[in-house]
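Methods — Computational structure assignment.
A single polypeptide chain was analysed. Its primary sequence is given first, followed by the predicted tertiary structure written as structure tokens.
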Amino acid sequence: MADPRKLAFGPIAVPAGGVLIVFADDNLRIGTRTRSALGSTADLVARAARSERFTGKSGTMLDIVAPAGLKAARLIVIGTGKAAERKSRDLVKLGGAAMGRVPSAATEATVLLELADGPLKPDAATDVALGATLRAYAFDRYKTKRKEGEEPPAKAQVTLGVADPAGARRAWASRQAVAEGVILARDLVNEPPNILYPAEFARRAAALRKLGVGIEILDIKAMRKLGMGALLGVGQGSRQDSRTVVMRWNGGAKGTAPLAFIGKGVCFDTGGISIKPAASMEDMKGDMAGAACVVGLMHALAGRKAKVNAIGAIGLVENMPDGNAQRPGDIVTSMSGQTIEIINTDAEGRLVLADVIHYINTKFKPKFMVDLATLTGAIMVALGQEHAGMFSNDDKLSERLTQAGLETGERVWRMPLAPEYDKLIDSKFADMKNTGGRFGGAITAAQFIQRFVGKTPWAHLDIAGTGFASPASDINKSWGSGWGVRLLDQLVAEHYE
């Protein structure tokens, strides 16, 4: 969504008005240029810090209203902690913290991007800008009335003061594409299900054509011809027709095998005949967060013109319980030819992924595949909402995803795969069944998906705990998190361009 807070880069200078935000470390040191710009007000900061027991600890804040010696209406000092412990992801969080301190009524704010050890270089400045942009996001397009005191943010100009404004602007161009990808993913997850059904989701994904992304949309007829019986079975109880969307970005060398990213896109999940309890069922509009991430990632890669060949594929369905709906006990034939006994119609996401993964794997022969899905409540029991569960058949891919998670803060934790778990999804009547019982539910779901992967390096990310309704952070106050876009963009940028 468009945000009323506009970011721009400028020099390190004190503004003539508005809110001024500066940074201090755990020894209350501020940058040389910042101190010079503040003049005598720098001594006021030291006195106020002693009075308020502000120590510069990371995440803490000192707020001085109408500071003497400055034309700014407000001076805010944010603690950065120890310089030696600072990482790139901390700068992203710092940008979010700074944007979060800009009062909603403010029309002008300046953030001086200089730490105690000097001004931030352009790339580091864009880390802060990324965090500020993500923190400024809000999804309120359907609000027509507000409670007293609940006013939308004023249109504000937020200037990031840097030593090299022109360099920061150049560096921001590619980073901004990543921010836009996260915001696109958040928008998709936040949309209500009566607005974002499979055909509409496909239409929005197709808008990536304007960035040079090739789009292929498979309708019911095309999927039936391909034999996608697993995916089609999930959506047959809905009045909204299912879709599969394949997005192609060709930024790498011609003929180079593409990277493949596949997302579960259940636009609403009632559970089907195995219907869910009514409590919190409204959250199931977010059961397409994996697909949203893939669309956001493709926007990011195309927007920053990534030097890589990449495919994003999403299976879009609505799982509803009408008279034509799939039943427990049904047997469907997947595109791979493998047959599946339906034990529980609420274990539907893996059926969608089975056909899309097989289609992408056989048609494009990718270098690797990563799928993302809000797949199981079991992964939340195991890991809570701080890590996504990762299952993989390839150690190198797993290690790279783990490292990318540590660098971006979108962390993953590797879970086991083993023949003993795989046996739990053997069926008496078909090649497999779509659930493996109560124990190890996230693992047996991953074992199911693996049966459609073949020998291609693959990782499955179960994002049930991180894709929506995850804990708020310095860079996200939204219900839909856009989780995974930055993780996968980092993976691509670090290892495959």
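Note: The mean pLDDT is 95.
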